[in-house]
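The instructor's notes for this session suggest beginning with a concrete chain rather than abstract definitions. Hand out the sequence below and ask the class to guess, before any prediction is shown, which regions might be ordered.
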Amino acid sequence: MVTESSKKTTLADRLKTVGCCQIIGAVIFALGLVVGLVIGLYVHQNRIFQSHNIGSTVRPVSQCPSTNPVIHLDFESSLFAPLTVREMTQVAQILLNESIIMSLDEPTGLTQNFITSMYLHPPLKAMALKYLDDDGPNVGRYAKVHVQRGATSPPDVMEYKVGPLGGNKATITPLTKAGDIHFNARPYEKVEIANLNNAIKKDMHILASLIAESFDGAVYPRDITAFFFNGAAGFRAEERETRFVIGFWGFENKIDLFHLLPLSGTIHSPGTDTSQWYTHTFYYLNQGPYKNASELMDSYRRNNIRKIKLSDGYKDTTRNRLFPKRDDRKPRRNFSHRQGSISYQPDGARYTIAGSKISWMGWEFYLSASQMRGLSLFDIRFKGDRVVYELSSNEVVVTYANDGSAQNGIIYTDASFGLLSGHPVTILRDVDCPQYATVLNTTFWSSATQKPGQYQSICIFEADGQEPLWRHNDDSFAAGLRNRYLVVRMPTAVGNYDYIFEYHFYLDGNLYTTVSATGYIHTAFWDAHNPHIGNDKTKTPFGYRVSDYSMGAIHDHTFGFKVDMDVISTSNTFKLIRWRAGSILDAFKTQVDIQEQPPYFVYNQTRYIEWETLQRERGMKLSYDEQNVWIVVNDKEKNKWGVERGYQIAPMKTAAQTLTEAHPALSALSFTKYHCAVTKRKEDEQYLTSTYDINRMANPKGHLDLMLDNESIIDQDLVTWVTVGFVHVPTSEDVPMTTSVKTGFLLRPFNFFDNTAVFDMPEYYESADHKDYTHEPEAEACYEAKYRKFCKYC
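After discussion, reveal the predicted structure:
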């Protein structure tokens, strides 16, 4: 029997069930709606990325076109291209056939004749211009070769010109006379380094207990090695005194210059008879000198000397301190797991490479490189007019100051070691250059193997400045042009430092030359109880403490460039425009002699400019107190307004040489005294320095002051030698790696054109009423291949 009460209960249960079903249905509906929205958004976003609309048609997006900018890479047909492997091999065989070198095997002793470096010998300019401009004959390609002649008596170094290459008629022309370059003035190379290591083995055995007790149980040569590149090997060419310092092993079986140890000495190492070499002048914790290792060890055992003891386990942590890898002990930054912004080429490359000739947006030039002097460009033209004949990196000088017994007064001239790196892996993908860049190989002669090597050295690409080259907003319109430029870049490593040389070509005729420094710092040992420092245990006169036992040694980097300007022709003049402040009469008297100030001037003071034409060769320095504009002009070529056409040389922020004239190295490095020097061009004045002068500073043979010999430079073929740089006071932020620091200079059109030189490019323009609108060409939407390889054509 169904009661009224049970009916009510059943109805309530039914209503409860229906309500639950409705709630469940609503939840399912909501979930479906959310999932549908997510799927819809995903599909929509994916279509945005992978397709574009044309009318009502949706088409899938394809990979961006991979146009090949390389027409051909026949370097041997170019006057200026770097030597090829085949050419280097030919040159070596020619020298072997003429008994100038003894073998093409790896050299094993100093009493052998072998090649230390080889690179293109640039053609004579007059002959090159006839070939380039007047359909003259191809003058051929030549090599410049440095030969270390240990088998001659007396031994020396010779330089030769070999060529023309490619045929059977090559000749050998000596560029120096026997004995001109003393054997002891040569740069260090692998054979000598091996002999220097042999020379200290006995001393390291004598000092074994000192080394173990002081340096965390270190054993030579298992844990430590010696560093021999501690500045000049001799003040005079006849000398050869090699200072050495020991340190822990670092990367790739090389010494760790960040963890050097306070034990040093000197090797008397002249000539080729290594049996006559000996060690002397030992220091420990800057205490000495001790005449030999035994005397030092005796003093150490008798406790007559202050000692150092590194903390236990220290030697096993040095590599991790310096190794450039993300510190796993630190949390990642927010969103660092996502890829950062990148550039790509939506319409393929807009530059071409034919041999060593590069063309882009009105610019044309030839690329070259030397293993000693680095990256060069020749015959640079814009819109058909030659602007520069040669723009070349020439020298890098690094001057250190620290309190280390073997390292005070260190000066490196990096062209002595070679500015073009010989590392097999030079270009770092997505670090040095974007994925779409073209990478070119250059050759490097190995003195160690007596064979040429070919390495990825230079990358070329168009860059997006992501900024306006020009812009203007007005009531009636808005207009502008996006800044894009061509980059030619050469990263290189010289010891602990890495340099990035590059040239930027802009749409308006500007040409930037920049160089950056990065890598890891060269330190000295930090001695907390050094009696030469005060109570402040954080710094010395030579730098800050940056690690447990390391002090960052202060230094500067000075970069010298050869800028052979040819504004329209080789007949050029150098002018100074001086930026002045003074009275109104002072301003007018720069052109006319007036006695009364015109009445329309509000003040009696103004700014004005005055001009000076340099009559004779001169070196100049920048000064904040006296602002000057440097221009190279062609007095015979005028623009539409009757003004001589020219180019300005404008350095970026730079440093000045602070060494005094009393410093013994300054004559050999005289280019560092100036920011710009102007000389009359000569074929025998190719470089700012000699690669041998750092080891014969008492009598340098090739430096800028010798070129500044007061010749007339009016309407002449001029070379401007531009020097830029920066000082570096290392801090803890330089550990483990120094982030990039940049300097350089700009070559800027100066009345070279009749107006702004970019209005042959399609720009952005929109009128205020939106009736008139133009924009850059737009490529179809595409995506860049994620793992596109560098220059498969090279």
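Then share the key points. The first strand starts at residue 51 and ends at 54. The two ends are 98 Å apart (CA to CA).
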